[in-house]
Design goal:
alpha+beta; 6-stranded mixed sheet; 5-stranded antiparallel sheet; 8 helices; about 25% strand
């Protein structure tokens, strides 16, 4: 199934199902928001399936992805992992970090009270903060109990989403050195307009990850074409890690971290920091700058046959 949140002027919008080709959307009667659905999934999902059949039969209205809100405009928790080893290893090399070998995934808790839509301008106060995009995938969960074993965690995945985890790189280093988590370096994330149930991905939903190419363009030029299937930690493992000592309420979002491949010199990168890291390793100096006001970034992962999945994130950076 394919879900979007239409903007009705409220903070949480109205839940709609979207046709396979993303041309039509139909409000789900009796299910006001995506969070309402997540809170009572088993009871309400048949209502949504019936609505999906109607929209595929031609009911509903024209769907404008650029006018949609984030599928989940605010969430109870946003927990972002770092599941692609090629990205982490490069960043450690550039920063001179020797990570402790714990056998556990890396994860931080970020801002979740506001997810930006995939098409709105994103305002930042200062270019010197090092404005960067980060393309990744995420999953939206049902309720997960404390200590749920990894083999049961995949059953909690309700939806798959595509995310741009905005970062302010010049602020990240000093915050990391304090020993506490990121605050200023991690503003609100953006989310592509359509959230999918995992079955929509078919064989691309592999080993608990999204095995598709994430196309990233910066100012109209190709920047990255990394494959999403290279996760060293599956989403089920990330969920189990997050739930080791805390309950995860329905609506929690778990991120994959920046999509990255070991052959990043060939396929490109999903964030500027990785490109700069490659330049430092290869030449000793980073020559690629961070984003400036007026820049645009576009991200999209399509099905292998070209069918739209999440829709695109296509945003312009502006001055706050």
């Amino acid at each position: 199934m394919r879900f979007a949140t239409l903007n009705d002027g409220s903070r949480d919008g109205r839940l709609a199902v979207v046709s396979i080709d993303h041309t039509r959307a139909l409000l789900v009667e009796g299910v006001a928001t995506l969070q309402v659905l997540l809170d009572d999934w088993d009871h309400l999902i048949p209502v949504c399936r019936a609505a999906q059949q109607r929209v595929e039969a031609g009911q509903g209205e024209a769907f404008d992805p650029s006018a949609a809100m984030a599928p989940l405009p605010r969430a109870w928790q946003w927990l972002d992992g770092s599941a692609y080893p090629s990205h982490g290893e490069l960043m450690d090399q550039v920063l001179g970090i020797v990570p402790e070998k714990t056998g556990r995934p890396l994860m931080y808790q970020g801002l979740s009270d506001h997810f930006l839509s995939g098409h709105e301008d994103v305002a930042f106060p200062d270019l010197s903060h090092g404005i960067d995009f980060e393309g990744e995938f995420g999953v939206v969960l049902g309720n997960v109990a404390v200590g749920t074993p990894v083999e049961e965690c995949a059953r909690a995945i309700r939806l798959v989403v595509q995310i741009n985890d905005w970062s302010l790189r010049a602020l990240a280093g000093p915050e990391m050195k304090t020993g506490f988590g990121w605050i200023q370096a991690k503003p609100a994330c953006s989310m592509a307009p359509v959230a999918l149930t995992p079955d929509v991905l078919g064989t691309a939903w592999a080993e608990g990850g999204v095995d598709l190419t994430l196309e990233v363009d910066w100012n109209g030029r190709s920047f990255g074409r990394a494959q999403g299937g290279a996760m060293a930690w599956s989403f089920a493992q990330l969920i189990a890690h997050a739930a080791a000592t805390r309950r995860l309420p329905a609506g929690t979002i778990i991120g994959s971290g920046t999509v990255s491949n070991a052959n990043f010199r060939d396929v490109g990168s999903s964030c500027i920091a990785e490109r700069r890291g490659i330049e430092i390793v290869d030449t000793g100096t980073a020559t690629t700058g961070f984003m400036t006001f007026g820049d645009r970034v576009r991200m999209e992962a399509r099905a292998r046959d070209g069918t739209p999945l999440f829709g695109a994130i296509d945003q312009r950076v502006v001055q706050a």
